[in-house]
Write a structure and sequence with these properties.
The protein is of the alpha+beta class. It has two helices and four strands.
């Protein structure tokens, strides 16, 4: 199992002038019984942002600037959590039944299945006509 989070970071200063990309990932292997749910947590991120609002110029004056502006610290926390429930399927009928259950439980899955490209299926050959009795 592999979890990965990518995001665009701050822009590098000149001469590069290109955004910085950050990548965080975690990988694990587990053994589970059929229908046993595993919760994988990890890839926790805390982002702090300082926001300054005020009258341009006046809000930057030491001490007096407090009268003409305000400062706020915004803290965002995100955590990527995966829940996995493996199912051992013995027959094609059982696999189809389980797939249909999952489609009903997750409408997003149904939409992505509809949008996915379909494999080309070969056209079956036309049925052969039986030979006439006593013919060549």
């Amino acid at each position: 199992m592999r979890q990965e989070v990518n995001e665009v970071g701050a822009t590098e200063p000149p001469p590069i002038n290109s955004p910085r990309f950050t990548k965080r990932e975690a990988e694990t292997s587990v053994v589970l019984l059929s229908n046993q749910t595993l919760v994988l947590g990890g890839l926790i991120q805390t982002r702090r942002t300082n926001i300054r609002i005020g009258i341009p110029g006046l809000s930057r004056i030491p001490i007096l600037g407090l009268l003409f502006g305000s400062q706020e610290e915004k803290i965002e926390k995100t955590e990527l959590v995966l829940m996995i429930t493996p199912r051992v399927v013995g027959t094609a009928v059982e696999a189809a039944r389980l797939t249909e259950e999952m489609r009903k439980a997750t409408p997003e899955l149904e939409q992505s299945i509809r949008k996915s490209p379909r494999p080309l299926t070969p056209t079956p050959p036309p049925p052969r006509e039986p030979a006439a009795p006593g013919g060549p």
